[in-house]
Amino acid sequence: MSSSTLDSTFAALADPTRREILVRLASGEASVKELAEPFQMSLPGVSKHLKVLERAGLISRGRVAQSRPCRLEAQPLKEAADWVEHYRRFWEEGLDRLEDYLQEIQRAGEGGGGR
Amino acid sequence: MAAGGDPRPGELVVTRDFDAPRELVFRAWTEPERVRRWWGPEGFTMPYCDIDLRPGGTFLRCMRSPGGLDFWVTGVFREIVAPELLVFTDSFADKEGNVVPPTRYGAGSGMPLERLVTVTFEELAGSTRVTVRHAGLPSGEDRDLVRHGWAGGLESLSGYLSGAS
């Protein structure tokens, strides 16, 4: 999973309403209307949250019925939960960039020979 | 400070050799203008970086994701032995530098407020070995996080959230 995917997963999960929506979907598919009820929220309001969740790959929407029922996709959540992996990627990618940076400034003589 | 050893649960060890003098590598970790050039995952930028490099001194960084999301991180330097060793805490923050709970950035409640990062810089023949030990991470193993949290998937997330409310 790329950092930008992980990014959108965390952004999506940062909101309590969206977490509640995921919890609701854990017990089965639901329509937008069914999801809106417990939150006393307008349909467009819920739709907005659903779009964020869908972009993050946390839910999918049915294509057939008019209600386009929402379904949970658990995989991104599992991946986001593994913080050791998250930080491993964080440091590995950072150290890749550090390697490039050190090469670049040494080529340019910007490093001053390390003094 | 031994760089080797197996990581403990919740601890991460990453090692990398750099074809550069140790002093330069250490400066790349401690001078804001250098830190900003490389810190963070691919595609991230760092619009803000302040480092007060002394024991007890703090740092504050803002990492901006490719999607434009800002992650503020702060910490305190616990130990500084230039150019050999850096020990600092690592916490999520707001832009004023106040520590905020990791849940603010979408992490589960199993993530502690503060993690500890130990970085050693060893001189090898013509290169520098950097070892990052990152402790205090929820490892997703035999913890509440698995039983009640996000790592166990949605059923346990559901239980966790209803238990928390």
Can you describe this structure?
The complex is a heterodimer of chains A (115) and B (165). Chain A is mostly helical and 115 residues long. Chain A has 2 domains: 1-73, Orthogonal Bundle (Arc Repressor Mutant, subunit A); 82-115. Helices cover 63% and strands 5% of the residues of chain A. Chain A has helices at 3-13, 16-26, 32-36, 43-55, 75-81, 83-108, and strands at 59-61, 70-72. In chain A, strands 1-2 form a two-stranded antiparallel ribbon. The longest helix of chain A is centred in the last third of the chain and has 26 residues, at 83-108. Chain B is α+β, with helices and mostly antiparallel strands. Chain B has a 7-stranded antiparallel beta sheet, with helices on one face. In chain B, helix 1 (22-30) packs across helix 2. In chain B, a hairpin with a 5-residue loop joins strand 3 and strand 4 (70-81). Mean pLDDT of chain B is 81; it is low at 141-165. Chain B contains 4 helices and 7 strands, in the order βααββββββαα. Chain B has one domain (14-136): START domain (Alpha-D-Glucose-1,6-Bisphosphate, Chain A, domain 4). Chains A and B meet through helix 1, helix 2, helix 5 and helix 6 of A and strand 1, helix 1, helix 2, strand 7 and helix 4 of B.
